[in-house]
Amino acid sequence: MTTSTEQPPTVAGPLDDGELRAIDAWWRAANYLSVGQIYLMGNPLLREPLRPEHVKPRLLGHWGTTPGLNFVYAHLNRVIAARDLDAMYVMGPGHGGPGPVAAAWLEGTYSEVYPEVSQDEPGLQRLFTQFSFPGGIPSHVAPETPGSIHEGGELGYALSHAYGAAFDNPGLLVAAVVGDGEAETGPLATSWHSTKFVDPARDGAVLPILHLNGYKIANPTVLARIGRDELTDLLRGYGHEPHVVEGSDPVQMHQAFAATLDRCLDEIAAIQRRARDEGVSERPRWPMVVLRSPKGWTGPAEVDGLPVEGSWRSHQVPFSNARDDEGHRRVLETWMRSYRPEELFDADGAPVPAVRDLHPGGDRRMSANPHTNGGALLRPLRMPDFRDHAVEVTEPGTGAVEATRVLGRFLREVMRQNMHDFRLFAPDENNSNRLGDVLEVTDRTWVAERLPTDDHLAPDGRVMEILSEHTCQGWLEGYLLTGRHGLFSCYEAFVHIVDSMVNQHAKWLKTTNGIPWRQPIASLNYLLTSHVWRQDHNGFSHQDPGFIDHVVNKKADVIRVYLPPDANTLLSVADHCLRSRQYVNVVVAGKQPALQYLDMDAAVVHATKGIGIWDWASNDAGQEPDVVLACAGDVPTMETLAAAEVLRGWFPDLRVRVVNVVDLMRLQDEREHPHGLSGAAFDSLFTRDRPVVFAYHGYPWLIHRLTYRRTNHRNIHVRGYVEEGTTTTPFDICVMNRIDRFNLAIAAIDLVPRLGATSAHAREALVGKLIEHRAYVRTHGVDLPEIRDWQWSGARGPVTESPGPLVEPESA
Amino acid sequence: MTTSTEQPPTVAGPLDDGELRAIDAWWRAANYLSVGQIYLMGNPLLREPLRPEHVKPRLLGHWGTTPGLNFVYAHLNRVIAARDLDAMYVMGPGHGGPGPVAAAWLEGTYSEVYPEVSQDEPGLQRLFTQFSFPGGIPSHVAPETPGSIHEGGELGYALSHAYGAAFDNPGLLVAAVVGDGEAETGPLATSWHSTKFVDPARDGAVLPILHLNGYKIANPTVLARIGRDELTDLLRGYGHEPHVVEGSDPVQMHQAFAATLDRCLDEIAAIQRRARDEGVSERPRWPMVVLRSPKGWTGPAEVDGLPVEGSWRSHQVPFSNARDDEGHRRVLETWMRSYRPEELFDADGAPVPAVRDLHPGGDRRMSANPHTNGGALLRPLRMPDFRDHAVEVTEPGTGAVEATRVLGRFLREVMRQNMHDFRLFAPDENNSNRLGDVLEVTDRTWVAERLPTDDHLAPDGRVMEILSEHTCQGWLEGYLLTGRHGLFSCYEAFVHIVDSMVNQHAKWLKTTNGIPWRQPIASLNYLLTSHVWRQDHNGFSHQDPGFIDHVVNKKADVIRVYLPPDANTLLSVADHCLRSRQYVNVVVAGKQPALQYLDMDAAVVHATKGIGIWDWASNDAGQEPDVVLACAGDVPTMETLAAAEVLRGWFPDLRVRVVNVVDLMRLQDEREHPHGLSGAAFDSLFTRDRPVVFAYHGYPWLIHRLTYRRTNHRNIHVRGYVEEGTTTTPFDICVMNRIDRFNLAIAAIDLVPRLGATSAHAREALVGKLIEHRAYVRTHGVDLPEIRDWQWSGARGPVTESPGPLVEPESA
């Protein structure tokens, strides 16, 4: 153990004796509480020798990283108080959960939000017992931890979360510890480049602290084994000026770290002054710290003859037999007593003034910083009227409008009115996704070199584009979690890159729904475009509409999926999503010119209901239909309407009902999703026994998964994306996946027995159309003009190629 | 346009006039063919002025990166010939698809594998027309492209694929172009650290070429805008010695690039000599190239008054109206003629000798290098007998075996017999996943600094561990695609990190199944462990069994999912997977001590059938059961058996059938998956009308999606993971998700009407057990001993807490 001696030797540095003692006492207290959380369920103040029943039967937690996290916390507390900083702390090594819990308890925040965990011996007993214990709290930094916006489960997002928090918060300092394990992940490795996207004039500062603990679970870390020169090169290459603090002697380390922290904060202040007062717009070289300290610092040096401190054996629980093995128990007691708890806690078990005095008070406590409970700071967006951007629709199923371009105009106005707490994020796809109009009121964020020929790049731009979906997502999460608003637009195929991130965010939302002191935050909004049905540009390797499947596995109360069929519906959906809280909203909408169906009033009604019969496209008025054609998604909707028209041409008295789905969760049972339809409501749309041909945007099986409990499920036949594709035309992709108008019409014909002999005739003709299409497209490289230019004419009578009324009388 | 003049000025460099002319001619030819592919469908040799009908109606493709890719290709050809190199080429900017297609055609490979695309004018016409055309080839580097192992759809994996190809191929040079767009992605950013995992003695070399084109779709790139010093720092920080080649004048660039390439190859040769001949084991500083050239190099400088060459406007198709706009068409013709096709192609349209002479012949052609068609080199693994590692099982449902540790022993023997073409990959989890025994015969790969205390680290280790799932996956893909074997072990929760990568690999497999000249490669094998039911260590944020859902959306002919219930079944499944070809095999198995059910012979039969009734756990012999208890996954299997025991205790004459599923795809309809059961076979297991309580490892909806067509689907009630959890005990996680024995038994009781009054009694008792459990676990932090220590005793009569035979006579 390398715990400091009672009489610290004199080491040169900025700390006087009092400061040194205060920081060391705070650190010892946090370390003591951390070990206690991992090991103990009784005797929290060591009032008596440790007995087996004081030790938890299951020991879970990560000691290795924790003393380093606590060390940084203690030092940040000094400078927050000294400089009156507004600071928060993102801990990349989130498995060091005992650390921030200990800190929040020492600062009093923990007892404020969880009164039963009071600042006395019974509270301490609860604090220790609850950690990684059934009915208690997780072993990692989690939503339950005051002061955290950063789920400590999956590694890689510490820096992108930190920058997300810093954007538009000019007064905020975000200290971000990056573990050297985490540093090996891809998302973390590229997030260092956030230095090119943070504006020293408008945004806050991030102070990265690369913590070289040296070891992961069972391996050394790469960055700890490349030598100091190469590491310095790497960090300078990321745009930083690294300051190295290295060692294990606490006193020396206290002085060195304090000096380094002062220097970094002076540099940050100077950078911000230059940018804000002198108008310097060049990208600065931001300072950062490299902290190289032993893994499991201050823990037992050796257990059972094997090295523990400074080795991978410290990663989790350094020794695990403390309940049953007296030797281990003695090691534990010696270890805990080495922090001298009798100096740190008073007779009641509360932290003594010498410990309490280090940390700042009120909102300046990092565990109570309001930015870390972003919902408390959240202000609703000022919302322009989306109806102002309505597309005129005189006849349904006509026109050629790029839906996302219309959305872009609306987003431009949202941006214009919310220039301090709204941003757009995209992996180099903002303009490709047709949201370019937003650049009329802001620029793309860019703090790296600029050239005169550049297009809308500026340090204070609010459209954030880097070719890293991970970084976009991480920035946005950090931005939302600190109480702001945003939207992530992404090609549908590439959004799988952030599957595990959205997963973690959705679970964060689910958990915070059960934590009363966590205020609701703005929803995480996705616009997925360049979708699977219009991937003619890129080819098969890109095509995957399964992000929807991924998100609907999460808890129903945090997931919403919308498939607006046209521009006006998209506007209404977007307005709703931007106003909403605590959801992951997935909106799928095409960016290519497409038919429009609903005028604004109809679109608002339809988007609000989320599902409905399109009377103008149906001819089953007042009767049960012969067949229901259902659709969800813009391309499936168009093909469904075209199929309805084809059917009407061949079978004028066939009663066809067209049902369009905007809100996918309406399909689910009301017991499974709050948006779910009741059984009766579902039956009134889909009937109890008529055939349903359902054309769906994504993988068809999802519709079955959502509807398997429905009365008429047995008759629901779903067409969707079945993993066929290559670089081909828009219509040909539909044909390859059998979701095109002709295949849908054939499916309907095959399901309605009463059509009799004509059905064979019609079927043959439709197969002929498919053959004609394939030949044409392979020769000309484009779709048949009649398909390319098709518009709905259902309301104006049968289409010309119809052979007229050839329907047989209803037969068996 | 910056195309070289006919009389190149004298520029100092290693190339003599003849070499310079040859390289430039080859480059011009490749560029000409690239432009032709993007634009033309007629008049391929410009025998006449371009007319509208010569131009494709839809212009798709990416010109911007292509001339740079072609430039590198031309230069590599020179050094391959000069040094007799065994070299292949990974093109990160895969959208530059026309480039490698042009190269393969120039080298003759294209016509060898696609004879209809011959080396003459009709072949040229086909070459041009097919590109990004319906029925043709994709616009990016794809499986269809000879010489490629790297799908050019989603960016980020060029380097990890390149290193995967280089491992265990000491004679191979892998040139890897990294686009500066791709360089912003997380996976690419961390894959530079592969320098710490490539052994100069045993492995081949990777030569990264960072191509600073300067622009993405609509933005500049980060690495092009950070200044040369910072970029150099960054690349040195990654462990490289960067050599910069910068400019736009072709002659100067030819000389500079040739000199740089010579220098890099000399350095590589020296590194390998030192390692191989002198035994130097320190990590070398590998050379790399930074190529800064204009985007759309040699393209039109300006179109319609706007800059094109050297701007983001070159990214895709530099101007799009060439069919209809005469001005644009003239620009196109001038552009294409600037390459002087009359010097490059003979009267028939074949490349003239001056062009053909540059490239090497036979297998030395990069487009024909056998490593890029890995199946052709693939040798089956030498397989030890997995039965040698069988766990003895005398009574089913007893014992406490870590299944993956048993697998580790088998893998150790597989490794021992295949020390040149088999590797294990894991994100720092190999030992945690209980595969540590493999370290008895090899080490972890580690070329960075080593300390005496390190555990099994060596440059020539074959267990590859970096805390980057992306890098593990990319390495393994590269390794498999070049004809070797491997297995990726990963915590189940974290495998979502590579969702989009496995997606792309599965699509590659699907596509290659339709390409006759592509030989089958070894399957991509996943072992998912530390699974959702045993995440007591880490907590809720980690828990997600949805990777299975993700993969089953891919084509049925490339996806296999196995859920072996115990160690012997796992051995049999692993043996099968390691022998298989062209699949993505997902194997889910726990690593904690667990019950064993089947002896080796039974396990082989069960794994081979993939699904079956466990007679020893059933008591419905010769009759229809009252209820079917089905299960898939180790924990659900244990809970199901315990539920069967509970039911038997309460209702001795209740006919219970236990069905266990190993091969999940057996559930699907035989028309949908080749492993699918026929309707009759399914009905014989699950009955046509009896209630089924199905305990499934993952999200329950997947079972519905797989079985919705089955006769008895309406009676299948699935329990699975429903997104509940926190840090708690193994059994409590089951209770939270209602998949525990008591809840399963209650579900069964509720579904069998004939149980009558006793059912209320039993139900109440079981609910009591749940309450008792929850209270106990919250007090003691561990599961009730009777649950923790439970073993199957079904064969030995009713369990003690049974109230005895209280069953009512069968009622309505």
TrEMBL record, chains A, B:
Annotated stretches, region: Disordered: 360-379
Domain of life: Bacteria
Record EC number: 4.1.2.-
Keywords: Lyase, Thiamine pyrophosphate
Domain Xylulose 5-phosphate/Fructose 6-phosphate phosphoketolase N-terminal: 16-376
Coiled coil: none
The family this protein is said to belong to: Belongs to the XFP family.
Lineage of the organism: Bacteria, Bacillati, Actinomycetota, Actinomycetes, Geodermatophilales
Transmembrane segments: none
Signal peptide: none
Gene Ontology BP term (one): carbohydrate metabolic process
Organism: Geodermatophilus telluris
CDD domains membership: TPP_PK
Stretches assigned to the Xylulose 5-phosphate/Fructose 6-phosphate phosphoketolase C-terminal domain: 591-792
GO molecular function, one term: aldehyde-lyase activity
Cofactor: thiamine diphosphate
InterPro entries tied to this protein: Phosphoketolase, THDP-binding, Transketo_C/PFOR_II, Xul5P/Fru6P_PKetolase, Xul5P/Fru6P_PKetolase_C, Xul5P/Fru6P_PKetolase_CS, Xul5P/Fru6P_PKetolase_N, Xul5P/Fru6P_PKetolase_ThDP_BS
Listed name of the protein: Probable phosphoketolase
